[in-house]
Specification:
Elements: E1 2-4, H1 7-19, E2 24-29, H2 35-47, E3 50-55, H3 75-84, E4 89-91, H4 95-98, H5 117-120, H6 124-139, E5 143-147, H7 151-163, E6 169-173, H8 193-214, H9 220-233, E7 238-246, E8 258-268, E9 271-281, E10 285-287
Parallel strand pairs: 1-4, 2-3, 2-5, 3-4, 5-6
Antiparallel strand pairs: 7-8, 8-9, 9-10
Helix pairs in contact: 6-7, 8-9
Adenosine monophosphate (AMP) is lined by residues 29-30, 36-37, 39-40, 146-147, 149-150, 173, 175-176, 183-186.
Length: 291
């Protein structure tokens, strides 16, 4: 497996590959890799000849109040994992390589960046859009893989690709969970044993919301109330949001119908955790995907 830390060396490796007729798949990550990243890598592996993982903790997606310095870094283990998962190359740029001067050119995706996480994480999706656009220009991937766990992020990237005409095919990875239902996240390592037990209440609460829909409830607020009270019962009390909205444009629903996103953000201890279900709601309620 190759490792590159400069854009120039990465580009010359990829150019040689392209000249040989190889296609490229990219999995952008912030490191502290886990089984969710692994599944993204597996999907990318099936999608192209050259599989590249980027590992970069992107400062522009953290707001001033968020702990960038405390974000977990496990680079040596990540590199071993990438090798074991069949990656051809890893891109591990330093901060000054990705941001050579103070960033003044931004990618801002209106509308869908504002609700859910956009309300509290001001500027977050501008940072995400900008770093992913930079990576797409550096790598020029044929395929890029994103996880549905970060549903709003996946939609922001999808709109960016559509509207800025990036020639990349996006693939979505389903949310990978531990046996107890907790969605895998680099932030789970901040949880104590007790907090971890409580955190499993997030997926359980989403399931309670699904049961309400299966039982025929079609008022979004009523479903959200079921989810919020299930969260509180399992000891998840610092709830940032529970929302049931349209899964295409993230706008409020008058009544629950079509492809919908049931999304939760909550703090458990110091960890801010998010999770969601994407559901097709008609007469029946089925799991589906964002795109
Ligand atoms: P991150 O390193 O947290 O920025 O995540 C890198 C990519 O992995 C993003 O596209 C995430 O959506 C995806 N990802 C993170 N956690 C999971 C998970 N539990 N299941 C599937 N994909 C995930």
């Amino acid at each position: 497996m190759e490792r590159f830390s400069t854009i120039a060396s990465l580009r010359s490796y990829l150019r040689a590959g392209k000249q040989r007729g190889n296609s490229i798949a990219l999995v952008p990550t912030m490191g502290a890799l886990h089984g969710g990243h692994r599944r993204c890598v597996e999907i990318a592996r099936e999608s192209a000849d050259i599989l590249l993982v980027s590992i970069f903790v992107n400062p522009t997606q953290f707001s001033a109040s968020e702990d960038l310095a405390g974000y977990p870094v496990t680079l040596e283990r990540d590199l071993e994992d990438c090798q074991a998962w069949g990656c051809d190359a890893v891109f591990t740029p330093e901060m000054h390589e990705m941001y050579r001067s103070k960033q003044i050119a931004w990618v801002d995706v209106d509308g869908i960046s504002q609700p859910l996480c956009g309300r509290t994480r001001v500027g977050h999706f501008r940072g995400v859009g900008t770093v992913v656009a930079k990576l797409f220009h550096m790598v020029e991937p044929d395929v890029a893989v994103f996880g549905q766990k970060d549903a709003q992020q996946a939609l922001v990237i999808q709109r960016m690709v559509e509207q800025l005409n990036f020639p990349v095919q996006l693939r979505l990875c389903p949310t990978i969970r531990d046996a107890d239902g907790l969605a895998l996240s680099s932030r789970n390592r901040y949880l104590s044993d007790d907090e971890r037990k409580r955190a499993t209440g997030i997926f359980a609460a989403l399931q309670a919301g699904r049961r309400a829909l299966v039982g025929g409830e079609r008022a979004p607020e009523a479903v959200c109330r079921v989810v919020a009270s299930a969260l509180r019962e399992s000891g998840v009390t610092e709830i940032e949001y529970v929302e049931l909205i349209d899964a295409q444009d993230l706008k409020p629903l008058a009544t629950v119908q079509g492809t919908v996103l049931l999304a939760v953000a909550a703090r458990v201890g110091v960890a801010r955790l998010i999770d969601n279900l994407v559901l097709q709601v008609g007469r029946n309620v089925e799991d589906t995907t964002l795109f």
